[in-house]
Write a structure and sequence with these properties.
alpha/beta, binds S-adenosylmethionine, binds iron/sulfur cluster
Length: 373
C-alpha cells in the first residue's frame, strides 16, 4: 500500500568529533554501532513504510556526519532506501575522498550538502571543525569530478573573531567554486554551552553586527546571480533547472514528512512526533521489534496554519491567502503594506499570495510575528 507522505528524512548521528557550537543530536565515534544503527533504521522504515508515497519525492540523509558512517553500512542503507528524484547527503569536507564521491554518485545520491562554514583556517579552529580550507575545496572538486551537478555549501556568519572583511572574502571563496546552492546561516550560540562560555563577549559583538552581515550576504550573492529564495538559502538561477533544495522546500511549505533515526522529527496525520534522542534506547526498541519512544504533539488546523504563515513568509514566493487561513491579522497586513514590508501578489491564474518585500524579509521573524492573528 502506498501512503501520502512524499518526503523522507534519515538521521545519521555519528561524528568523528563534536564541534563546540553544535547542539544537534550527535554521537561521537562508536564505529562498532554503525551496523546496528543501520539495521534499526531499516526496521523503523519497515514499520512506517505504509505512510510513505512510493516513490517519495525527496530523501535527505542528515546528521551528524552521514559520510563518517562506515562505508559498507552507508552502502547498505542507501541501497535499501527508496529512490527519489532528489536524494541529498550531508557531508563533512574531511570525509570526502575521490572514492567516496564516486560511491555516493553510484549509490543514487543526486545532491551533496557540504559543511564548509568558512574558508578561514583560524575561524574553522574556533568552530572546532576538523577540516581546513583546502579540505573544503578538495572535497568540492572530488564531488564535481564524480559528476555531481547539484552541490550546496553550508556557510556561517557571526563566528567569534570574524570581521566584515573576513565574511566578504568567504563569500568570494564560495562563489569561486560556483556551487548550485548556498545556505548561509547565522551562528546560533546556545546559552549555557561550553562554546557560549568561551566566547561570551565576542558573541555579543557578533550579534550586534549580524544585521550588516546578512545584508552583505544577500547583496553579494544576488549580485552574483543567485536567487534569494528562502531567508538563509540561495540557488543559482541561471539555467532551466529548479535548484532550490526540494526537501527543505517541503518543510517550508508545511508538507508532511517522515523522519527516521534518533531525534528525528516526523509530521503527518495531524501529529508531530520526535523520536528519542538516546541511541541505546532507540536500538533496543527496534531490536525488540517495537517502535522507538516518541514525544507526540497534536497539530490542529490553527497550529498548522500559524506554522505555514511563519515558514511560507521566509520564501520569496510567499504563501497563498488560503494557506494562511485564520492565522493572518488583516489589520496588521494593512499596516505592513503601508510600511512597504509586505505586499499582495496576484498570479495570472493562480491564487492571490502574500509575500514580504525584500526589506520585510530582511527583518524576518519580527515582521512575521506582527502578521499572526
Ligand atoms: C548539524 S550539521 C550536519 C552536517 C555536517 N555534520 C556538518 O557539520 O556540516 C548541519 C549544519 O548545521 C550547522 N550548525 C550546527 N550548529 C549550528 C549552530 N549553533 N548555529 C548555526 N548552524 C549550526 C553546521 O554548521 C552544519 O553546516
Ligand atoms: S560535524 Fe556537523 S553534526 Fe557533527 S558536531 Fe560538527 S556541526 Fe555538529
Amino acid at each position: 500500500m502506498s501512503g501520502s507522505v512524499r518526503h523522507l528524512y534519515v538521521h545519521m548521528p555519528f561524528c568523528a568529533h563534536r564541534c563546540g557550537y553544535c547542539d544537534f543530536v550527535t554521537v561521537v565515534g562508536r564505529e562498532g554501532l554503525h551496523g546496528r544503527y543501520v539495521d534499526a533504521l531499516l526496521a523503523e522504515l519497515e514499520l512506517e513504510r505504509e505512510v510513505l508515497a512510493q516513490p517519495p519525492e525527496t530523501v535527505f540523509l542528515g546528521g551528524g556526519t552521514p559520510t563518517f558512517t562506515e562505508v559498507d553500512e552507508l552502502r547498505r542503507l542507501l541501497e535499501a532506501l527508496p529512490s527519489a528524484s532528489e536524494v541529498t547527503v550531508e557531508a563533512n569536507p574531511e570525509t570526502v575522498t575521490a572514492e567516496l564521491a564516486r560511491f555516493l554518485r553510484e549509490a543514487g545520491v543526486t545532491r551533496v550538502s557540504l559543511g564548509a562554514q568558512t574558508f578561514r583556517a583560524d575561524l574553522l579552529r574556533v568552530l572546532e571543525r576538523q577540516a581546513g580550507p583546502d579540505d573544503v575545496r578538495r572535497a568540492f572538486y572530488h564531488l564535481r569530478d564524480a559528476s555531481f551537478d547539484n552541490i550546496s555549501l553550508d556557510l556561517l556568519h557571526g563566528i567569534p573573531g570574524q570581521s566584515t572583511s573576513d565574511l566578504a572574502l568567504d563569500i568570494e571563496e564560495a562563489l569561486a567554486l560556483a556551487p548550485e546552492h548556498l545556505s548561509y546561516y547565522e551562528l546560533e550560540a546556545k546559552p549555557g554551552t561550553r562554546f557560549t562560555h568561551a566566547h561570551g563577549a565576542e558573541l555579543t559583538r557578533q550579534a550586534e553586527a549580524m544585521e550588516g552581515y546578512f545584508e552583505l550576504v544577500i547583496e553579494r550573492l544576488t549580485d552574483a546571480g543567485y536567487r534569494w529564495y528562502e531567508t538563509a538559502n540561495f540557488c543559482l538561477a541561471a539555467d532551466q533547472r529548479d535548484l532550490r533544495a526540494q526537501h527543505n522546500l517541503a518543510y517550508w511549505l508545511g508538507r508532511d514528512y517522515l523522519g527516521l533515526g534518533i531525534g528525528a522529527v516526523s509530521t503527518f496525520g495531524g501529529e508531530r512526533r520526535r523520536n528519542t534522542p538516546r541511541l541505546h534506547a532507540y536500538l533496543a526498541a527496534l531490536e525488540g521489534g517495537g517502535s522507538p519512544s516518541r514525544e507526540i504533539e497534536v497539530l490542529d488546523e490553527r497550529v498548522r496554519a500559524d506554522e505555514r504563515l511563519m515558514l511560507g513568509l521566509r520564501l520569496d514566493t510567499g504563501l497563498s491567502f488560503a494557506d494562511a487561513g485564520e492565522s493572518l491579522d488583516d489589520a496588521a497586513l494593512e499596516r505592513l503594506e503601508q510600511l512597504g514590508l509586505a505586499t499582495r501578489r496576484v498570479g495570472e491564474d493562480g491564487p492571490e499570495t502574500l509575500v514580504l518585500t525584500p526589506r520585510g524579509r530582511r527583518l524576518g521573524g519580527a515582521v512575521t510575528v506582527e502578521l499572526l492573528a
